[in-house]
Amino acid sequence: MNKPLIAPRVAVGAVVIHHHKILLVKRKNDPGKGLWAIPGGSVKLGETLQRAVEREIREETGLIIKAKDPIYTFDVIERENRKIRFHYVIVDLMADFISGKLQPSDDALDAQWFRPREIQDFEVSERTKDFLRKFGFIR
Q: Which residues pair with 111 in a beta bridge?
């Protein structure tokens, strides 16, 4: 059983674009279970945002990245029967692809590189679509 939520959790995502394609993962767990989204996860105590996102991407996709600066921040708050089930403050960072073979694991059901026109054919989280529109990756 989960402990009661007493404060928001900090999470990170990596915006990795390589050969004009963006990296997305199909989420294994809530929030956003079953949807395609920017890959990432929770920040551990003592981790910088950059180290956290580099670790999370390695765990979820097998890829080595180099995290850069934050570019987008937002909240994910899900309620159930008036109680807050999740509250994440998510910081997305730009990141450079360094090396590795794409191999989904950990919290990812799948991981793929997407061209902008391909994204419309998949169930992508609304937050990810908002981000991709804001930064001109999709219309």
A: 25
φ/ψ of residue 130, rounded to 5 = -60, -45
Q: Residue 123: is its pLDDT beyond 60?
A: yes
Displacement of CA 7 from its chain's centroid (Å): 20
Residues 6+ away with beta carbon under 8 Å from 65: 14, 16, 53, 54, 57, 58, 95, 96, 97, 98
What would the two tokens of residue 129 be?
A: 């679509």
Cα Dmax for the chain: 44
| The model's pTM | 0.91
d(CA 8, CA 57): 22
Q: Looking at domain 9-134, does it have CATH number 3.40.50.720?
A: no
